[in-house]
Amino acid sequence: MSMDFSNLYSVKGKTVVVTGGSRGIGEMISAGFLANGAKVIISSRKEAACHETVERLKGEYGGEIYAIPSDVGQMDGILHLAGEIAKNEDKVDVLINNAGVAWGATLDDFPEHGWDKVMDVNVKG
């Protein structure tokens, strides 16, 4: 095995899944992997945002990228994402669990259903 830094940490030819990959930090993570030769699969709740991001990143970096819109805050969404990946890919080399939500309330006013949503997406998703 070559200990050359560029080969040691290469993602060329790897398959990467990025949840929350259609904007912000997730989009930047997706762009970084795509620019360095990985096949990237992005997922987000918002279908239009997923497809817009795919087209923008494909135009900027080329390479292989596609979207599987899904809500990983719900078990049905998790199963949908996993099922679609299994249909299209032999394996996933890297999973970036970037999807996350926050609830806009003070600790004293934080409702239990808000906490449940945060846990469902940020931890279980």
Describe the structure in your own words:
With 125 residues, the chain is α/β, with parallel strands linked by helices. It has a single domain (11-100), classed as 3-Layer(aba) Sandwich (Rossmann fold), CATH 3.40.50. The chain is built from 5 helices and 4 strands, in the order αβαβαβαβα. Strands 3-2-1-4 form a 4-stranded parallel β-sheet, with helices on one face. Helix 2 (24-35) packs parallel to helix 3.
Write the layout of secondary structure elements.
Blueprint: H1 5-8, E1 15-19, H2 24-35, E2 39-43, H3 47-61, E3 65-67, H4 75-88, E4 94-97, H5 112-124
Parallel strand pairs: 1-2, 1-4, 2-3
Helix pairs in contact: 2-3
Question: What is the CATH homology-level superfamily?
Answer: NAD(P)-binding Rossmann-like Domain
The parts where pLDDT drops under 50 for at least 5 residues are none
Fraction of residues in helices?
A: 40-55%
CATH architecture: 3-Layer(aba) Sandwich
Strand tally, please? Answer: 4
Whole-number count of domains: 1
**SSE order, as H and E?**
HEHEHEHEH
Q: Helix/strand-derived class? A: alpha/beta
Overall residue-averaged pLDDT value:
91
Strand order of the largest sheet: 3-2-1-4
Give me the number of helical elements: 5
Q: For the record, what CATH class applies? A: Alpha Beta
Ends distance:
35 Å
Shape verdict: elongated
* CATH fold annotation: Rossmann fold
> How does the major sheet shape up?
4 strands, parallel
Beta-strand share of residues: 5-15%
Summarize this entry quickly.
The protein has 125 residues and is α/β, with parallel strands linked by helices. Helix content is 46%, strand content 14%.
